[in-house]
Write a structure and sequence with these properties.
TIM Barrel, binds phosphoenolpyruvate, isomerase, cytoplasm, Triosephosphate_isomerase, gluconeogenesis, triose-phosphate isomerase activity
Length: 243
């Protein structure tokens, strides 16, 4: 058993329905050994509090309030009982042009509100192939460390999500994931000792059959689950694999 409490966080992305949420609310059971989180689309957050899981949002504004039509303030999320906010998901970086600096600003806003960011990092396929992926991931983390301050990463959950593995079925091998997780842990504990104790989740085509071997690795503290978090049976199996 690891010293860090495992976590399994589902990321529904722009999928699901209120009916599916109700079904999850009835099926997912509270656990004292695994932190279970469901990150549902904004309109479902208010209804998500009835389940035996913590609620997460998939993004938030870097601003606290004001003239930002269509954006969501972290204080509003807090009012609904949200505890976690995914920040810097690769789909936000790609679809909305979020930079490392934008993401650091969001991390800062989420921390200031007392919520926990699930900070996503991870490289595109070309950088994996050119063997420069560690430098890339390091830059992503460094931006948060430099802009948000030394202790910021110790207050985040970090999700390593290689982009080539997201939604592709091309899961990183447990060895590939462990290598990067260990690298991340070593680097961030260099900047701030406490950050070495942060949970580092793996994300990228985790499913009911491959979760156990991934989670068995010493620096993999659980997973961020996209597609498989929409199927109750699979999500439950993945949560149990993290025990
Ligand atoms: C994700 O979107 O964070 C993710 C890991 O997706 P998937 O599990 O579908 O690859």
């Amino acid at each position: 058993t690891k010293s860090r409490k495992p976590m399994v966080a589902g990321n529904w992305k722009m999928n699901g329905s209120l009916a599916l949420l109700t079904a999850f609310t009835q099926a997912v059971e509270l656990s004292t050994v695994v932190d279970k989180v469901l990150c549902v689309p904004f309109p479902y957050l208010a209804a998500a509090g009835k389940g035996d899981f913590a609620i997460g949002a998939q993004d938030c504004s870097q601003f606290e309030s004001g003239a930002h039509t269509g954006d969501i303030a972290v204080s509003m999320l807090k009012e609904l009982g949200v505890e976690y906010v995914i920040v810097g998901h690769s789909e936000r970086r790609q679809d909305h042009g979020e930079s490392n600096e934008d993401i650091a600003a969001k991390v800062s806003t989420v921390l200031k509100a007392g919520l926990t960011p699930i900070l996503c990092v991870g490289e595109p396929l070309e950088l994996r192939q050119s063997n420069t992926f560690k430098e890339y991931v390091l830059e992503q983390l460094k931006a948060v460390d430099e802009i948000c301050g030394r202790s910021a990463l110790s207050q985040c959950v970090i999700a390593y999500e290689p982009i080539w593995a997201i939604g592709t079925g091309m899961t990183a091998t447990p060895e590939q994931a462990q290598e990067v997780h260990e690298f991340i842990r070593t680097q961030i504990s260099d900047w701030c000792e406490a950050a070495g104790h942060s949970r580092i989740l793996y994300g990228g085509s985790v499913n009911a059959s491959n979760a156990e071997l991934l989670f068995a690795k010493p620096d993999i503290d659980g997973g961020l689950i996209g597609g498989a978090s929409l199927k109750i049976e699979d999500f439950v199996v993945i949560c149990n694999a993290a025990k």
